[in-house]
Write a structure and sequence with these properties.
alpha/beta; three-stranded parallel β-sheet; Oxidized Rhodanese, domain 1; 5 strands
Length: 149
């Protein structure tokens, strides 16, 4: 039985209670971690390696108060009626990896740089698309504007 999972990754899906095995490519002889002459033999301190705190990339951000936060269930309800604008302020790379289907990406860096006015115009445009009276109804359509990080 030795080596039964050599060069394989075993995945377990708890939702469907299934297992999958994925073949991995062989290690490279020149790899700094697993090669013939590894240079990295110990765990590296994340904060020392990255030069940033491990808790959050943007240390200058003020955390939200509990009354300013929403739960996943509240977000789901807000998104279900199409009267919500969701602005995801993560970097484009993070947004491209994983994002909510109805969210719009305007990276936080745009709000803190020379592009600030352009970012604000984007937000105003998104809000104005939703915030207009419907025929026969004077109530604005926009209920929520939510920013995600």
């Amino acid at each position: 039985m030795p080596g039964v999972l050599k060069q394989k990754l075993l995945l377990f899906d708890a939702d469907s209670t299934t297992f999958r095995s994925i073949s991995l490519r062989p290690s490279r002889p020149d790899c700094a971690v697993c090669g013939a002459n590894p240079q990295i033999t110990n765990l590296i301190d994340y904060e020392e390696f990255c030069g940033a705190r491990a808790t959050d990339k943007d240390s200058g951000i003020d955390w939200l108060k509990p009354e300013q936060r929403i739960t996943p269930a509240q977000l789901k309800d807000a998104l279900s009626d199409n009267n919500t604008v969701v602005i995801d302020v993560r970097s484009k790379e993070e947004f491209d990896m994983c994002s909510l289907s109805k969210s719009v990406n305007i990276p936080w860096t745009e709000f803190t740089s020379a592009e600030k006015e352009n970012a604000l115009r984007k937000v105003k445009s998104l809000i104005s698309e939703k915030h207009h009276p419907t025929k026969g109804n004077s109530k604005p359509i926009l209920d929520n504007c939510i920013c995600l990080k």
